[in-house]
Amino acid sequence: MLFLLYTCVCCIYSGVLLIARFISCTGSSSSRRRRARELYDPSDPNMCHFTPMDTVLSILVFIEAIMFGLFTGIMLADQLSAVFENTPGIDAMQGHRGPARHWYANMQDVFGGPISPAWFWPGRTPVRLNKMFDAMIHQFRDHLSWNFPIKSAKKQAA
């Protein structure tokens, strides 16, 4: 979820910067252009002089920021709704629901503890979550071997 959050924030930031540059550099007012030069780079007198390549690349970056920002924003909303409801998307489509819990308890499970700055810093997975994941893997493996016995190569050859 942190990847989606940070990617969406970066897309919004790049879109806002492009819009700010366009607004600051357009118009007939020379004071607006002077203010834009002071805001961005006072040593560059051609800050608001757009070359055709600059215009094309700015448009492409803006389109990319909109498309990728929307995609990551929608995916983030989907992931958050799955965490808040304690039900993954596929299980929700199949009608299965997780046990009803408060959304904050679910967020603590996802991020490994109570709210803190560590929630927004990608780091190591907490030991408690690693143990829970290992237990789920062993439970799943036991379930598969119970329903689908694996035949050894010697039995298949005979």
Summed up, what is this model?
With about 160 residues, this protein is mainly α. It contains 7 helices and no strands.
Explain how this protein is built.
Helix 1 packs antiparallel against helix 3. The protein has helices at 2-25, 30-40, 52-85, 89-93, 103-111, 127-147, 153-157. It starts with a helix and ends with a helix. It is 69% helix and 0% strand. The radius of gyration is 26 Å and the shape is elongated. The chain is built from 7 helices and no strands. With 158 residues, it is mostly helical.
What characterizes the major β-sheet? none
Which H/E pattern describes the elements?
HHHHHHH
Straight-line distance between termini: 51 Å
Mean pLDDT level: 76
Estimated structural class: mainly alpha
Compute the CA-based radius of gyration.
26 Å
- Tell me, briefly, the overall form: elongated
- Tell me the fraction of residues in β-strands, as a range: under 5%
**Percent helix among the residues?**
55-70%
Instruction: Please mark out the parts with pLDDT under 50 across 5 or more consecutive residues, or reply none.
Output: none
What's the number of extended β-strand segments? 0
Total DSSP helices: 7
